[in-house]
Write a structure and sequence with these properties.
Distance between the termini: 68 Å
Number of domains: 1
Order of helices and strands: HHEEEHEEEEEEEEEHH
Strand order of the largest sheet: 1-2-3-6-5-4
CATH architecture: Beta Barrel
Number of strands: 12
Structural class: alpha+beta
Strand content: 25-35%
Shape: globular
Length: about 300
């Protein structure tokens, strides 16, 4: 009788145990509150670093103009003013009283001002003002987009029939061709899937795609060896299509150097006379120490 009682108790304990430890079925999962992303953290880095980090998210913004909602990239800062490159068709035709809004990664909305759009290229430069600190993308004067260069595009894709919610997306692929003086300034064609809403978002590459050594790969760099700052090489515009209908599958963008040749004078007039070197960027200053933690200390290399 005592044996049967112990067997019964054991049976009850077994029945109360989960089917799989760590994976409980039939139990309501608790939803964790989303943390506001304002600054780079250790969760934003993996090793190896090439295209394997979340820096892109921090420099990418959502833009709401009079055109279709789109994306943009913060490229410069002067005091409390932030300067953003985007596609002209995202901004649309701005009339007196129209408002442009920029939403940063932390969820904050900022009123923005159109500084210049261009009739020859599908590009625009806007600015917003904030006392908060945001990251600006890194632009290298000698890194030019080339055929075969591997790139990453990012932007805020809108909801679709298949995807019920909009989301910040990334897409990878090579540049398939570079065409100078192309229609609307679209000099880059690349094999990376893009969605509506990603127009105006950044096209990024990496020092690994060039013959140039970044600060993180210099010999004797014990502070953050292996750290590689993403390089902004262009601004995404739209997908390529044919006159007879249909799309080629390629996406089109404008080189950031083409953009700066159009809007550089405006930036100078605003007091932005130069863009920071890699070591001077906030991305590098904040990112290096965090990256070393991921790799258990960079001084081992």
């Amino acid at each position: 009788m005592k044996y049967l009682l112990l067997l019964f108790v054991s049976f009850l304990i077994t029945m109360n145990e989960p089917l799989l430890s760590g994976y409980q079925l039939g139990v309501e999962e608790k939803t964790k509150e989303k943390k506001i992303r304002e600054k780079l953290t250790i969760d934003d880095f993996n090793y190896p670093m090439l295209f394997n980090n979340n820096i892109y998210d921090f420099v990418t913004v959502a833009i709401y103009g009079t055109g279709a909602p789109g994306s943009g990239v913060i490229i410069a800062q002067k005091d409390n003013d932030y300067y953003v490159l985007t596609a002209n068709h995202v901004i649309g035709e701005i009339l007196k009283g129209d408002v442009i809004e920029v939403q940063t990664l932390d969820g904050k909305y900022h009123n923005a001002k159109l500084l210049k759009s261009d009739k020859e290229i599908d590009g625009a430069l806007i600015k917003f003002t904030s006392k908060k600190t945001y990251y600006s993308a890194f632009i290298h004067p000698e890194v030019l987009p080339k055929t075969g260069m591997f790139i990453l595009t990012t932007g805020y894709a809108l909801a679709s029939k298949e995807a019920t919610r909009g989301s910040l997306r990334r897409s990878l692929g090579p540049i398939v061709t570079v065409i100078d003086d192309n229609k609307d300034g679209y000099d880059l064609l690349y094999d990376a899937a893009t969605n509506v809403g990603m127009s105006g978002g950044g096209i990024f590459s990496d020092f690994g795609q060039t013959k140039i050594k970044g600060q993180g790969w210099e010999e004797g760099n014990k502070d953050c060896f292996g750290f590689s700052t993403p390089i902004l090489v262009g601004i995404h515009g739209r997908a390529e299509s044919y006159r007879a209908g249909g799309k080629s599958g390629a996406s089109m963008g404008i080189s950031v150097h083409t953009m700066l040749s159009k809007f550089g004078k405006i930036l100078v007039d605003e007091g932005v006379t130069s863009l920071p070197s890699e070591r001077e960027t906030l991305i590098y200053k904040d990112g290096c120490p965090i990256y070393c933690k991921v790799n258990d200390g960079c001084d081992q290399y």
